[in-house]
Amino acid sequence: MEHDNPRLQRYFIYFSYDGTHYHGWQLQPNGISVQAVLQQALTTLLRTPIEVVGAGRTDTGVHARLMVAHFDFAAAMDTEQVVYRLNRMLPRDISVKKLVPVAGDMHARFSAKWRTYRYYIHTAKSPFLRHYSLLVTFPLDFKQMNEGCKLLLAQRDFAAFCKSGGDNKTTLCEVTTCQWVQTAAHEWYFEITANRFLRNMVRATVGTLMLLGRHKISLSEFQRILTDGNRSQAGESMPGHALFLEDIVYWDKKYYDYLIDDLRQILIFNNKFKEEK
């Protein structure tokens, strides 16, 4: 929501966190959350109650290599100094990258165009990967799983991967990237980019793709799961410790104002050309 006080400046805060010891991003009545810790640090530092609005929410144990939130503040600030002091106040598992003043109508959640998640797995035991990657001990057909990814790219309704009881008003999502990528002999990650994500969607998608990779289901059965939209037919939700929110992309309002103006000029020119003919 756009703030209606012209004396307030909106800021975007870019940060990352290790979600191991948190009950997700969002404020919780009976558990510590990343949002609560960040709000408390900002409130203490700026000496006024601060409420932050995140670009989305991550579940318990899920990490963010990049998260964005916004808040409003009445006074001018030295953003570099605030970042420095915040990082001294925050615990070691939360790190602020930058603080940027933005237009009052920019919204951390609703102005975001694309979000990217990665789910990491390793297929050989490693003491150094276990906290941030899932050990998979059964063979997987990654070629078949990437064929399943092609079906996901053509899919619009992801009800099959939506946690029951969620508060989603719609289960429609636009997926632009979906693939399994190998980074080392025994290390892979699943990457998916979309305009929005449903609750538990990524972990349920990974669980269902693994059924495909184990040849527990065929491609046609995978497609039927997507078409039927029944969560009970899909695979299990995979553990959260291997999931990372990797990136968030925002529309640049100024760029699109220029783009709209250019399109308007093209339409005027085309109409004038038609009239002259």
Overview of the molecule:
By secondary structure, the protein is α+β, with helices and mostly antiparallel strands. The protein has 2 domains: about 10-110, 2-Layer Sandwich (Alpha-Beta Plaits); about 110-245, Alpha-Beta Plaits, CATH 3.30.70. Helices cover about 30% and strands about 25% of the residues. The chain contains 6 helices and 9 strands, in the order E-H-E-E-H-E-E-E-H-E-E-H-H-E-H. The protein has helices at about 35-45, 80-90, 140-155, 200-215, 220-230, 255-275; strands at about 10-15, 55, 65-75, 95-100, 110-120, 135, 175-185, 185-195, 245-250. Strands 1, 2, 3, 4, 5, 6, 7, 8 and 9 form a 9-stranded mixed sheet that branches. A hairpin with an 8-residue loop joins strand 2 (about 55) and strand 3. Helix 3 (about 140-155) crosses helix 4. The chain is globular and about 60 Å long. It starts with 8 loop residues before the first strand and ends with a helix.
